Each structure stands twice: as C-alpha cells, then as structure tokens.
Amino acid sequence: MPAVRCARILLVTLLSAAMPCAFAQAWDDVAPDAAGSAAIQLPVDEQVEAAVAAVLVPTLGSEFGEAMLELRLGDARAEVTGARDHVVHGVGQLRLTGDGGADDWLAFRYRTRYDPVFATAGYPEIMLGGDGAGEDEHFVPNDAGLLVELEARVGAELEAYPGAGRVFLQLDDISSMQSGKRFIRIEAHGLADFGPGGNTSARIDALYDLHAHAWLSVEHALGPNINALGDFATAGP
Fold first, then answer.
1. Do 130 and 143 reside in the same domain of the chain?
2. Less packed terminus of the chain by CB within 10 Å, N or C?
3. In angstroms, what CA-CA distances link 66 with 4, 60, 182?
4. Would you write out the chain's pLDDT as a tens digit for each of its 237 residues?
5. Domain endpoint, select from 135, 166, 185
6. The pTM is what?
7. What is the dihedral of CA 151, 97, 60, 45, to 10 degrees?
8. DSSP state letter for 9
C-alpha cells in the first residue's frame, strides 16, 4: 500500500457530548431481563474518550502509512452488558495533513472493547466512510479506470495464495462514494473464480486518494472455503 509521506501523528480535537457516568454503578442499577441478561446504552465520559483516542490514533496512522493525521471524534456510546463487558462505538473524522493540509475530512465508524477497571480500550474495528452520513459525502459514478486497477490489485493478491493459479473477479454490485474532493471509497461484491478450484463470494472495500493518485487502503474478504479439486488448496483467507 503506497505510504503517504509523514512526519508525525497529530490528535487535534475530540468532539463529543461528554457526560459523567459511572459504568460500574450504572450496571449495578440495571435489573436483568426475564432471560437473566441486561444491556444498556450509556454516553461516554472524558476518561473513556481518552482511552478510545489512544488506540484509534496509532491504528489509523498505521492504516495510512503513519501519515500525519488530524482526528476528531463525534458522538459515542457504550454498550454495557456486564461489570467489565463494555463495547464503545461511535463516529469520527480524519484528515491527512502531511501534504500541505487539505481541507477534506473522511468519516469513519469504530467499535472497541473498554475495560473500566484499567481504563483501557482494546484494538478497534474501524470502517472507513460514513455511508453517506459523513461531512460532504456523496455517491458518484463508478470510475472504470479505478475499477480495472482495483480488480488487478485484488486479483494479484488472490493469485498469491499457494496453488491458486489464475483468479478471475466478477464484481456485480459496485458503489463509489466520494468525500469532499479527495477521497473515493469503493465497495464491491461479486465472485472470485479460482478455475478448477471453484468459486466463492468476494467483497472488496477500498479507499483511493485523488490528490496522491494512490490507493490508501484495499481490503478484501472471501466467502466460506470451497472444496478443492486436484492439488488446489481451498479458496478463502
């Protein structure tokens, strides 16, 4: 993945409706339901925000080649199902500033486990893009040139599997969402054809930087493994 030239990671602002809450006490005050379990949604306080930011910054920095980032967090909630079983989920925005400080922000969503005893957050799950809810996000026509590049890139990665041989991608459900004038997120679903090895469903989620003319992130996932034919290994991660 091409790395954007970088200097350091910059955490600028945390924008959140911070409200004080005592998770342990809140859990004690909630009665279990008829099935013997309970789940509540709570706003997060500044301590939780700091713990979440501490894991989001390096994770996003690694995702973008340790590029200089500005990060701001929006609304977040904590799903509490036990005294130490907390899952924090929320939204945020990031901006790459290592190349002169472009004004375009890219929305993202995240989930991470939080331990109220040690006040630490675990490795976060991050989904780039806000599915149209982010600032200045809008759907755009699919770019044929970018799709050709994307298919070739993912195809080469799949062909690197031991014994895979030639792999053909057939993408039928494709959407492109642009954030500002800089980022395009492409989400595609279809089939990965491994020839004699059979085929399986495939999903691609990619982010392209129109300023740098580079792919910032390309992730793919295959469906359940399929039976191999001959000496071919199973198709799947």
1. no
2. C
3. 8, 8, 18
4. 443 333 333 333 333 333 333 333 444 444 444 444 567 888 889 999 999 999 999 999 888 775 678 888 988 999 998 888 899 999 998 888 766 555 788 889 999 999 999 999 999 999 888 665 566 788 999 999 999 999 999 999 999 988 888 999 999 899 999 988 889 999 999 999 988 878 899 999 999 999 889 998 899 999 886 544 444 344 444
5. 135
6. 0.69
7. -140
8. -
